Amino acid sequence: xxxxxxxxxxxxxxxxxxxxxxxxxxxxxxxxxxxxxxxxxxxxxxxxxxxxxxxxxxxxxxxxxxxxxxxxxxxxxxxxxxxxxxxx
Length: 88
Known about the structure:
Blueprint: H1 3-13, H2 17-22, H3 26-45, H4 52-87
Helix pairs in contact: 1-4
C-alpha cells in the first residue's frame, strides 16, 4: 500500500471523513446530540465559554476532535492495508 497516496486521497476526497463514515449511524447521531447538549449544560454550569474553565473546556473539546481525526485516518489506513492483504 502506498501510505502517502492513501493519506492524500483521504484528506482530499473526504470533506469530513468521520461524518461520512458515520452519517447513517443512528447511535452516533444520538450520542452526538447528547454530547452537544451536555457540553452546553456544562458551559452554563461553569459560567460560559469566556471563563477560564470555559476556555479549558473548549481546548479539551478541540483536542478530542483532533484525536478522533487521527483515529479516523488510522482506521482508514488499516482498512486499506487489510484489503490489500486480502487481495493477495
